[in-house]
Amino acid sequence: MQITNDITFRKLAVFTLFMEKGNIARTAEALGISGVSVHRALHSLEEEVRCPLFHHKGRNLVPLPAAHTLLEYVNEITETLARGLEETRRIAGIDQGRLRIGTLYSLTLETIPQLIMGMKLRRPQLELDLTMGSNQILLSMLDEGSLDAVLISLQENDVDRAHLEVLPLFEDDICLAAPASLTLDTSEPADLRKFNRHKFVSLAEGFATYAGFQEAFHIAGFEPDIVMRVNDIFSMLSLVQAGVGLALMPGRMKKVYESDVQLLPLAQPYQMRQRIAIVFARNREHDPNLLALAAEGRMYARRRLAADKA
Fold it and tell me: Is residue 94 pLDDT above 70, yes or no?
């Protein structure tokens, strides 16, 4: 016998619950639907099976032996499907007690620790794997499925919003970083044109501040003398502290070497802001672990906004 499209899992679920409750009214109440909808689903299933499943006894439906036989197989199908879905999620790395998060190095100072602490309170048994890298690398790992979510800096068209969910956390200004030993005029924002004789250190291509770095000096009208490119912001900050060169970096890094590195806001033509967000695949928006991360992210964003206004 050919199984038609009209034999749906929804109808089978109504049938299974009716066989358990033995009553249309109780079945309707449990499902949150009308008794008419329950009766219609059972009658439609009976038509598609092409044999009687019930007989009427007054206003009640009484299951025939055929209904009990069908129930055995429906239960078997449901259990098999549940195991199949569980195995599918396991292979995909979803909801297996582990969440793989990618992040920018700079977010490990404050943002990531606060999110992790919140996640541990929400889901104590959840294991968190943390990977650090550039925007480019993290987005690539998210795309290939080796990360479940990433915390990165986003511009307007960096990601495909049709396939990726984006949860904004906060915005941060890019500043000029210089060693504390360097005498600078701090009475006004930094005009990059005045630093054309200085050496610079930079993050490598693919990092959040790289494109902004290039654009800022393009506006300033000169090619910066870059003495070193590095692959993490902490190394760059250490080089600035040691006097190897100046750099452009987000204001949140001020807390690391506050007494050894000075951060100056950029003059208007060069001003840039990083928009930090959590990004994950839209088709996984109902994953319990990602729902917990999103909820914690929203709370963090609200706390951050309140602190900025204070």
Answer: no
